[in-house]
Write a structure and sequence with these properties.
- The structure holds two protein chains of two kinds.
- Chain A is mainly beta.
- Chain A has a domain of 252 residues: Neuraminidase (6 Propeller), CATH 2.120.10.
- Chain A has one helix and 26 strands.
- Chain A is globular, with a radius of gyration of 22 Å.
- The N terminus of chain A is likely disordered.
- By secondary structure, chain B is mainly alpha-helical.
- Chain B has two domains: 78 residues, Cytochrome Bc1 Complex, Chain D, domain 2 (Orthogonal Bundle), CATH 1.10.760.10; 84 residues, Cytochrome Bc1 Complex, Chain D, domain 2 (Orthogonal Bundle).
- Chain B contains eleven helices and no strands.
- In chain B, α7 crosses α11.
- Classes of the chains: A mainly beta, B mainly alpha.
- At the A-B interface, loops of A face α1, α4, α6 and α10 of B.
Chain lengths: 403, 197
């Protein structure tokens, strides 16, 4: 008996010793998980021009779309334009992560007017519009603004749908995407609190809340950070984009596109990446077989953000129910890729294939910065044209088709 | 030879990118708009007042980002908030282009000998160099710290520690929580002295 006690006491002592040793300060979230071999790497994220950049100084003529399509600037001067939501009366609402405002773009006979409608919000990245109300997902809560389209100059007070979503003020991926499902529930992500860390029970997930009751449910787990989702118009299945971890090299792991077909799947983070690549640290005692694989690998560090199924009537018939994905573009890669819109064709069995749809932002894959603009979200307009946002410059572009 | 050519081509591209960026916002327009700034920030943005930050040589995006945050009320200061309230986006980009184009002339100040090595260690321990760069000269929206005015640096660090200084992504507030008063003394002395080197 005695030797056992001694062992217990000794190990307790060792634990205390370990805690007494001053720990290294945690690095900023984007540097977290960087291996010693990459300590000299100068790769870094790209920061948007918050005051925007004028179209006049940008090479917009470099943007390329397939034959028959046309791309043009639709509105500018919208700081850090990110998520897009379409009002019943045609107002385009535009969110951001860092500017604390929500903007509205009103089309007045070919002229677009930009208004600041909401101010002082906490990372209001997620927005969605339904039945006259704008819902906003901030860092810590989701709110509702009723009848806002008639009151853009004097918006109503928010009504809280759900609160206390960020009790620990988590670092890392603290911004949220927001969408309304066919079930009328609000779907949102809670990102991982760093590059590669063990999430708590609510983090690295997609959740949903019933706006009528406030009841929360988990939709998917093991999702490092999703900043775009939509439902297949026919199957009604949820599809979403996901960002893989950083600092595993130029080609690994892929960012991914996922499909939720049944139950509450776990897609593997932090144990397994892209369905088949165990994490060097967290994957040691787990198997990728435990987790649901992605529907499609999109490319390493390509940063897929907003995605929508095309349900408009303007584009040729073969585009119907295809997904447009906005690729914000890689930073954690020595040779950059992305900064584009991709077209993903999916069949009803969930098979997916990807091809470029809009390119031209990437000008030099080795330069810093390598691009002059970055797509964030896509939105199908009532006439079937496609809007997309560029947070780097604060610009919205419109893609249309004519035979 | 091939490698040399490739390198030459790369630097030509870099030059082009730089000049097109400078052309984007208007340095001369910025110089005119910046006249009012000199009262506090010094001639050409080189401050001689320990409480006022120098703007000369800052990355353009760092200037524009802070002006934007002041204008939107996300960062508040009794002197700066009213100055920024009526700036247009073009004003902010012009001012940023101008100040970033000016050669900084930091005060001839050196850190106390005991703080020089200790300060450098702290900038590694607290990961300052990860975002502000190995020489603490900033990048993109991250300000240059090297040779910045000491009292200004102290006020920002103490503000981040007290969670009262505006912080977009929480990184500075988070790291400042671990700073002791002594750490702040050493860091301020070390960083403010980097301009003289």
């Amino acid at each position: 008996m005695r030797p056992l006690i001694a062992v217990v006491v000794l190990s307790a002592f060792a634990t205390v010793q370990a805690q007494d040793k001053p720990a290294a300060e945690p690095p900023p979230p984007w540097q977290q998980g960087k291996p010693a071999a990459m300590s000299e790497s100068t790769l870094h994220p790209f920061f948007p021009h918050l005051a925007g950049r004028s179209v006049k100084e940008l090479p917009v003529e470099k943007l390329k779309v397939p034959a028959g399509f046309k791309v043009e600037v639709w509105a500018e001067g919208i700081p850090e334009a990110r998520s897009l939501a379409l009002g019943d009366k045609g107002t385009v609402f535009v969110s951001n992560r860092l500017s604390k405002n929500v903007y509205a773009v009103v089309d007045k006979g070919g002229q677009r007017e930009v208004k600041t409608v909401l101010k002082g919000l906490n990372a209001p990245n997620g927005i969605v519009f339904k039945n006259g109300s704008l819902y906003v997902a901030e860092r810590d809560r989701i709110t509702r603004y009723d009848g806002i389209e008639d009151r853009l100059d004097n918006p109503p007070e928010p009504k809280v749908v759900v609160d206390n979503l960020d009790p620990q003020k988590q670092p890392g991926h603290f911004w949220k995407y927001l969408a309304i499902g066919p079930d009328g529930k609000l779907y949102f992500n809670i990102g991982a609190p760093g590059n590669i860390v063990m999430p708590n029970y609510m983090q690295a997930s997609i959740m949903r809340v019933d706006p009528a009751t406030g009841v929360l449910e988990t939709v998917a787990l093991g999702v490092r950070n999703s900043v775009g989702f939509d439902w297949h118009p026919k199957t009604k299945e949820l599809w979403f984009t996901n960002h893989g971890r950083d600092w595993l090299g130029d080609e690994s792991p892929n960012d991914t596109l996922h499909r939720v077909s049944k139950g509450v799947p776990n897609f593997g983070y932090p144990f397994c990446h892209q369905g088949d690549t165990p994490d060097p640290e967290y994957g040691k005692s787990r198997s990728c077989k435990e987790f649901t694989p992605p529907a499609l690998k999109l490319g390493a560090h390509i940063a897929p953000l907003g995605m929508r199924f095309y349900n408009g009537k303007m584009f040729p018939a073969e585009y119907r129910n295809n997904i447009f994905v906005a690729m914000h573009g890689s930073w954690n890669r020595t040779t950059k890729q992305g900064y584009s819109l991709m077209r993903v064709k999916v069949d009803e069995k969930g098979h997916a294939k990807m091809e470029p749809f809009l390119t031209g932002f990437l000008t030099d894959e080795k330069a810093d910065p390598p691009m002059w603009g970055r797509p964030v979200d896509v939105l199908v307009m009532k006439d079937g044209s496609l809007l997309f946002s560029d947070d780097y410059n604060g610009i919205l572009y419109r893609i249309s088709y004519a035979k | 030879m091939r490698r040399v050519l490739r390198r030459a081509a790369a630097s030509a591209v870099a030059l082009f990118v730089f000049s097109s960026a400078a052309w984007a916002a208007d340095v001369e327009a910025g110089r005119n708009k910046a006249q009012v700034c000199a009262a506090c920030h010094g001639p050409e943005g080189n401050s001689a007042n320990p409480a006022m930050p120098s703007l000369a040589g800052q990355p353009a995006q760092a200037i524009a980002t802070q002006l934007f945050q002041f204008r939107e009320g996300n960062r508040k200061n009794p002197q700066m908030s009213p100055m920024a309230a009526n700036l247009s986006n073009a004003d902010m980009n012009d001012l940023a282009a101008y100040f970033s184009s000016v050669q900084p002339t930091p005060p001839k100040r050196r850190a106390a000998p005991q703080n020089a090595a200790a300060g450098q260690d702290l900038t590694k321990k607290f990961h300052c160099v990860q975002c502000h760069g190995p020489a603490l000269r900033g990048q993109q929206h991250i300000p240059s710290l090297a040779g910045q005015q000491a009292d200004y640096l102290r006020a920002q660090l103490e503000g981040f520690k007290a969670s009262s200084r505006a912080d977009m992504d929480g990184n500075m507030t988070s790291v400042a929580q671990e700073l002791t008063d002594k750490d702040i003394d050493v860091l301020v002395d070390y960083i403010a002295g980097l301009g003289a080197q």
